[in-house]
Amino acid sequence: MRESGVKERILDTASRLFYDQGYHVTGINQIIEEADIARASLYNHFPSKTDLLLAYLDSTHASWFEELDAFLKPIEGPREKLLALFDFRIMRQKRYNYKGCHFNKITAEASDDQAVLARVKAHKERLRKLILELVDQTMYRSILNNEQLADTLFLLLEGGIAVGGMYRSSEAPEKAKQIAEAVL
Amino acid sequence: MRESGVKERILDTASRLFYDQGYHVTGINQIIEEADIARASLYNHFPSKTDLLLAYLDSTHASWFEELDAFLKPIEGPREKLLALFDFRIMRQKRYNYKGCHFNKITAEASDDQAVLARVKAHKERLRKLILELVDQTMYRSILNNEQLADTLFLLLEGGIAVGGMYRSSEAPEKAKQIAEAVL
DNA sequence: GTCTATAAAATGATAGAC
DNA sequence: GTCTATCATTTTATAGAC
């Protein structure tokens, strides 16, 4: 009972700080202070800072797609769902103060850790696959084939969020959505 | 004479390490060791690590556009120049081992430093402006107006490089170029 | 399981001789 | 201008009492 509350508080605090400030700039000391737990409790639940990082990535990945599922559920039609993907990410960026994609951000910091890279890639590939499935459900025809259209949407999404992160603004992802609307 | 050689060596070494490993994970000790200079020499030329960071961004920005100018010069026609932008960035990614955009990467680390954010934004806006100028020189007509087309290319570029950085591969920017070819 | 105290190493930065 | 020696903090992580 108490244990799970503590573990959750550690992970929540670490997650917030890792994204907000960055991974390397966030020290164990700050985490235990803001989570209001004892030093050894952290190391009891997470043997090292790297374990905490991987737990952060795993939980973020899981909640990201859970939240997306709930977001897309009431929306009807593959085209509308595809456009809603932009809204979903814009909404999340607003919530987290426009610092860009969680996975893009951690890649910039923990760039040589294969366990990190594997998780980042798995996360993005799942999104790309979802987009392709939705595109396949549309009756889309043009100079681009379905896979190219899916990649277009995926890259517009990633580009918009990345630029939004650099500009600290929703302008780029909003434009990306408008382009997607014109293309679809 | 010696001074300028030293200063240059410091900046070159720091630039390489900041991009390769990350800013926060690169210590002053490593820089002075790999640049083979004395500790105080670094602080003589760069009062603080932050000054070194800003010098890194400024020199990277300058050499980036210098190199791009030379790259685009022999290429004829705005459409070909626009497509060459993708080649330029793919070439640079290959050279630097596919770790993504320098400016995107530093934003993920030094995210609350306004001096950093301003430089990142200036760099990206200059690229976006260049793309728009080239688009204006084409006789392009479609569902997208010129500014939207420029943004499309810009976002495809940024998305491709960002995803390429996360995947450590040139696959995404190559696809982005193919899409640009189909769209233009 | 949680706590406090502490270790061992690395951090950014400075002092003072040459 | 460059050098070596060093400072005060902060880093991740562990030991041992409760």
Range of strand content of chain A: under 5%
Query: What is the assembly state of the chains in this entry?
Result: homodimer
Which protein chains are joined by the largest interface, and how many residues does each one contribute?
A-B, 45 and 45 residues
The termini of chain A sit apart by: 50 Å
Helical percentage of chain A = over 70%
Low-pLDDT windows of residues of chain A: none
- Remind me, CATH topology of the largest domain in chain A? Tetracycline Repressor, domain 2
Write out the CATH superfamily name of the largest domain in chain A: Tetracycline Repressor, domain 2
CATH class of the largest domain in chain A: Mainly Alpha
The value of Rg of chain A in angstroms is 18 Å
Q: H/E series of chain A, N to C?
A: HHHHHHHHH
Shape type of chain A = elongated
User: How many distinct folded domains of chain A?
Assistant: 2
Helix/strand class of chain A: mainly alpha
Specify the number of helices of chain A. 9
